[in-house]
Design goal:
Number of domains: 2
Number of helices: 8
Low-confidence stretches: 1-5
Mean pLDDT: 92
CATH topology of the largest domain: Jelly Rolls
CATH class of the largest domain: Mainly Beta
Strand content: 15-25%
CATH architecture of the largest domain: Sandwich
């Protein structure tokens, strides 16, 4: 197995290796190919033929989709131990999203034929991939429900809380979201406009719920934000 510590870290937490023993995990990693990405590099484009699935060993990726009007919507940020394009190895499809690195990153990729071979050899891999796809589907359903039933400011609150849970670290001032986030990013992630996000964040900053600087958000009162997301 690759002795790179980033690989070891992702092995410990990635769902793709659930139920595999050391030998099986080693076999899977050896069949993959490593790729380094500089910040703002495109890993694959929406609509391209899906040929590989990927595991993030280091860094973070942004998954986006263009709607029919050409507007970019951020579907998800993924980090160490998470996978993307898993559907590619289960069905002949095009990539449904674009994956872009938002910082220096490192991924392992497997092409369809290799992963199909590994799934036949180790059926737990197929079960794990299906579980990952179902979890992503559940997340999309929850976000669709939010769009249909909640006010925009509640959706913005949920977006920040979701990012806090996935990429938050405790600081003296609160919980910092360790992703470079412009207000436009938050708007694209929440399905709203830059104006609405700017107005909402300014109001929350005055209330002491958050602190925002250029591309950085610190949630100073998580309890208040949770309560607002739940009750408005």
């Amino acid at each position: 197995m690759d002795t790179n510590p980033h690989i070891s870290s992702s092995l410990l937490i990635s769902e793709i290796f659930k139920g595999l023993n050391s030998k099986q995990s080693t076999d899977l990693i050896k069949k993959g190919r490593r790729k380094n990405l500089q910040p703002n590099s495109i890993l694959f484009h929406q609509g391209d033929p899906a040929t590989n699935c990927f595991l993030v060993n280091r860094g973070r990726l942004k998954l986006t989709k263009l709607n029919e009007q050409g507007k970019e919507v951020i579907l998800r940020y993924i980090g160490v131990g998470e996978t993307t394009a898993t559907i590619a190895v289960l069905k002949d499809k095009n990539y449904p999203v674009t994956a872009e690195s938002i910082e220096e990153s490192d991924v392992t990729s497997w092409d369809k034929s290799i992963m199909s071979q590994m799934m036949r050899q180790y059926p737990d891999i197929a079960i794990n991939l299906i579980g990952i796809i179902l979890e992503r589907l559940d997340d999309i359903q929850h976000r669709y429900l939010e769009v249909c039933t909640e006010r925009v400011d509640q959706r913005i609150a949920r977006s920040l809380l979701r990012l806090m849970q996935r990429a938050g670290s405790k600081t003296r001032n609160g919980i910092r979201i360790d992703i470079a986030l412009s207000r436009q990013n938050i708007a694209d992630y929440s399905g709203t406009t830059l104006y609405t996000v700017s107005r909402t964040l300014s109001a929350w900053e005055k209330k002491g719920w958050i602190k925002s600087r250029r591309e950085q958000i610190v949630i100073t009162n998580p309890h208040a934000l949770v309560q607002f997301a739940e009750t408005g």
